[in-house]
Amino acid sequence: MNKEKDSKKEVNLLDVVLVLAKNKWFITKMVFSITLIALILSLVWPKTYMSTAQFLPPVQQNSLGGGLDGMLGGMLPMQTSSDKLGAEAILVVLRSRNLREKVINEFDFREVYSSNIMEELLRKLDANTQLEEVREGGFGFNPVVALELSFIDEDPERAQAVTAFYISQLDSVVKNLNQLNADESYNMVKQRYEKNLTDITKAEEELKQFQETYGILEVESQSKAIVETLADLRSSAIEMELKINLLEQTVNPSNSELVNLKRSKQEVDRKYNEMVNHSNSAPGVNIFHSLQDMPDLSLQYMRKYREVIIQNSIQEVVLPQYEQQLMLRNDSSRNIQIVDEASMPTYKHTPKRAIIVLAGLLFSLFLSFVIVFIKETYRSGKKENSEGYSKLNAIMSALKSKRDQV
To answer: Which run of H or of E encompasses 338?
Structure first.
């Protein structure tokens, strides 16, 4: 059984070789003709040149926003990002219609591409423009670290000029956008900083005015002094009361010493009551206010003092932000960094003559083989009236009828 299969395969292979051998001159002529045509096409095909420039996105800088947010506990929800345009944003700028129309108008591509339809011009421009991303090595999604821009044109000088124009326009747009972002961040932080200066000045003035009005410099110390003074007055009043009681038992009511003691005690009692109750005296002339006034004055003092402390704390945070945004605003490294300038191409980009000739050779071999085997099938089938011959006749009849209908 296996011998019969091997014999059949050998016969089929020999038949193929025999068919090719019989038509060797036809195959040779076909291969030579088509390969020659491919060679001629590769020679007359218009040459194109490609100019390439490589550049880096603007250097990204870390912001202090994260640390400040932690320090403030979210009290100041300020957007303090100092990031510049990244590679993805730069790709958007390069693919923008505005920039591409500038290129078309600058180099009069309406005449070069023989069209006045902008959409067609944009498609042809995109077909000749290549953008390549250079990413960091490693697995997974890696950020873009560099970009390559290439332009293809029949004129090498124009290819270089268009690439250089792309880069210059991109650099200008990126610089302007980064400057605009830096100005916005700076103005936002500046407004907050100036408000803080106003608030801290107001708080300090209010605290100073309160201290000058009520004579309160240190609430706890002054409250302690008032309590000690009240204790001294109360002790003096009790001591005088004891002496008065003793004298009333031994001397006449008109006794001068007794009268003086009573007057002194009345004055001590008056002063004691005045310090315990609300004072009617002018508040600016006495730093010892009544004991009943002290809680309210203490609350007012603590509120004003607290406002000064809060504004000082805010300034400790906002001032570094303000200085940082000022430096970023004046930063000169906000544009792209050129690694390779647009080069003058000295060697053609297309056509690839070797590839065209090789493709013509392979196509001619395939086509000649197909034609040879179809002819051989038709010839042998005609003798034997085989099924393949019938199918070929049917195909030819269908093609003829279609042609007649047309």
So the answer is: strand 337-340
Q: Are 99 and 173 in contact (CB under 8 A)?
A: yes
SS3 readout for 9-78: HHHHHHHHHHHHHHCHHHHHHHHHHHHHHHHHHHHHCCCEEEEEEEEECCCCCCCCHHHHHHHHCCCCCC
Instruction: Give per-residue pLDDT as tens, 340-390.
Output: 888 888 888 777 778 878 888 898 888 888 888 777 776 766 666 566 667
Amino acid at 247: L
Identify the CA nearest to 79 among candidates 62, 66, 89. Answer: 66
310: Cβ–Cβ under 8 A, 6 or more apart, which residues?
none
Partnered with residue 54 across adjacent β-strands are 148, 340
Helix axes 2-22, 353-384, angle to 10 degrees: 110
Residue 133's nearest CA partner among 174, 92, 99 is: 92
Return the closest-CA partner of residue 49 out of 397, 343, 263, 356: 343
Q: How far is the C-alpha of 193 from the C-alpha of 320, rounded, in Å?
A: 10
Token duo for residue 345: 């191409």
How many residues are listed for the chain in this entry?
Answer: 406
Strand residues in 185-235 grouped as ranges (E): none
The per-residue pLDDT for range 84-96, each reduced to its tens digit, is 677 788 888 888 9
Tokens of 370: 């197909």
Q: State whether residue 130 is helix, strand or coil.
A: strand
CB atoms within 10 A of CB 133: 14
Per DSSP (E only), the strands in 89-187 are 129-135, 144-153
Flag whether the pTM goes above 0.70: no
- If we measure between CA atoms, which residue out of 134, 84, 146 comes closest to residue 338? 146
Run of H or E residues at 339: strand 337-340
